[in-house]
Amino acid sequence: MSEEILLSVKGVNKRFGGLQALSEVGIEVEKGHIYGLIGPNGAGKTTFFNVITGLYTPDSGSFTLGGKPYSPRAVHEVAKAGIARTFQNIRLFPDMTALENVMVGRHVRSKSGVWGAILKLPSFKREEAGIRDLAMALLEYVGISKYANYQARTLSYGDQRRLEIARALATDPLLLALDEPAAGMNATEKVMLRQLLEKISGEGKTILLIEHDVKLVMGLCDKVSVLDYGKLIAQGAPDSVQRDPKVIEAYLGTAH
């Protein structure tokens, strides 16, 4: 029985002036799995990630999410379609509390609207109480509920990463897209991150990540794609990918 494909991306091309950043790149991410995208510096993985999540407009390519065509032409459209992302450079609201940051994430799915908020209608108050409860539950889920009322900027680096993931989860995404989630983490924080991502995946969420830490990717992901100079050079299970001569050459050079 074949796995259900949640995200399908085919034939993506992207050029910046004279530079062909992506050439006919495509991936298929299976539902409930962790999918890794790796490659040397300048390989095009961040560009590809930004295309999928609506930050860059592709020159060509087709996209389906949950079996339905979608067009990643704007960030808000991508969020509405069901993709939530984090960034390599943490983008929290630093002066808001951890709880408020997660509540902001959930407001993407709120129903009361602007007038409900302005007029403080009963429906708005009920929904806001529900959002607060959910945000608190998500802080508990990622292991930082004790910092709920701390300003985001006062949290440790690793806890800020966890807060970003909680805020992304608050949108109830079909796909959680993580941009270098282990960047800047120490060894202990990386172990805790891996445990959290395994927990999220184990509960049925689908994760797509780009990551420089190849060891983390190979130990965490079900499937890996490797980009080099904007082209897909390998794709498959981590064991087979790390033995692929093209991958070894891309990372180590032919002398090795």
Automatic annotation (TrEMBL):
MF annotations from Gene Ontology: ATP binding
Keywords: ATP-binding, Cell membrane, Membrane, Nucleotide-binding, Transport
Residues of the ABC transporter domain: 7-254
Pfam families, per database record: ABC_tran, BCA_ABC_TP_C
Keyword ATP-binding attributed: yes
Keyword presence, Nucleotide-binding: yes
Annotated SMART domains: AAA
Protein name: ABC transporter ATP-binding protein
